[in-house]
Amino acid sequence: MLAAEFHIPSSFLEQVHMTDGVFIVRNDNTLVDMRSSSFESEDLLQQLLATHPSLIAGDAVDPTNPRRWLLIAREQAVPGEEGGAGRWSLDHLFVDQDGVPTLVEVKRASNTVGNQRYFQC
Q: Which one of 43, 66, 95, 119 is CB 3.0 to 4.6 Å from 59, fit for a cystine?
């Protein structure tokens, strides 16, 4: 992780609209603004989460000991009662480094402007 400390004059801040966006600093020190975009499908987001569980912000759960997840199952059947057959299905079943289960369900949300689709988990 790259960290730098610098002072920005307040006169500059008054002239510039600051954002809380996500950026990548390239090797040549140019800054690339990462913009959010909608996923083509719910399945694509589910595949990314299954392949890259670190997309789930483990430091949001515990900043001093960030959660790290291991995928146990995708499209896991969940019974309605002990010993019963699968009544529901959950998108992902993860466990963290302490063996605590984490259940992840991806849901579609729509934006009426431009008919864009967003998925959240």
A: 66
Which percentage of the chain shows pLDDT scores above 90?
A: 19
- Between the CA of residue 95 and those of 32, 53, 82, what are the distances in Å? 34, 10, 20
**H helix intervals, the chain:** 10-15, 42-51, 58-61
List phi, psi (to 5°) of 76.
-80, 125
Contact 26, 20 (CB under 8 A): no
**Secondary structure class of 53 (helix, strand, coil):** helix
Contact 120, 39 (CB under 8 A): no
Query: Which tens digit of pLDDT belongs to each residue from 23-70?
Result: 888 889 888 887 777 767 788 888 989 999 988 888 888 889 999 999
